[in-house]
Amino acid sequence: MPDVRAARPDEFALLGAVEAEAGVRFAEFGMFLEAPVSVADRGEVPLAVFVAGDPPVGFAWVLPVCGEPHLEELAVIPSAGRRGLGRALVEAVCTWAGDAGYRSVTLCTFRDVPWNAPFYRAAGFVELAPDAWCPELAAMRATERANGLDEVGARVVMVRHLRAAPRTGSMTSDGR
């Protein structure tokens, strides 16, 4: 099993370099993505952060979105790729979320990049139709469109359902 654990706060400063190095792989698909600000430097308070390796060679950054965990960023540097670290990070997020009583994990990703939607599909995620998006997910997608991500490649919202029983007080009026 790959070494995946909760990140230490002092490791957050290292994650921008991991994110930038991992993003280079998109060039294989003609996608030249450059995050203006690393996920760890945006000032958002994560629900959870998991890392692979010490020092980290991969990470999963999880934000709260509509009362549920949202996998905002999953990154593994190419030299550490193809060893199951991405899958181990996703499983760590989903195990943590299920153990914490959450019902699902969402994410936004590129539909046609092999280590994006096809990877998540193999990990149990399914596409979530726009009419099922909560207001925060809809706002995230609007921001992605405004930032030009849809011009780079088709985007999808995905969800992995974790358990049938909702946490007390976490259900919205529409049943999500």
Give a short synopsis of this structure.
This protein has 176 residues and is of the alpha+beta class. The chain contains 5 helices and 7 strands.
What name does CATH use for the topology? Aminopeptidase
> Which architecture per CATH?
3-Layer(aba) Sandwich
Stretches where pLDDT is under 50 for at least 5 consecutive residues are 169-176
**End-to-end CA span:** 33 Å
Number of domains: 1
Helical proportion? 25-40%
| Average pLDDT metric | 86
Strand line-up of the largest beta sheet:
1-2-3-4
Find the structural class using helix and strand composition: alpha+beta
Any idea of the CATH class? Alpha Beta
Number of strands: 7
What would you give as the CATH superfamily?
A: Gcn5-related N-acetyltransferase (GNAT)
Task: Note the overall shape.
Answer: globular
Instruction: Report Rg.
Output: 16 Å
Strand content: 15-25%
Task: Please write out the topology.
Layout: E1 4-6, H1 15-23, E2 48-52, E3 58-65, E4 68-76, H2 85-99, E5 104-110, H3 117-122, E6 126-127, H4 135-146, H5 149-152, E7 155-161
Antiparallel strand pairs: 1-2, 2-3, 3-4, 5-7, 6-7
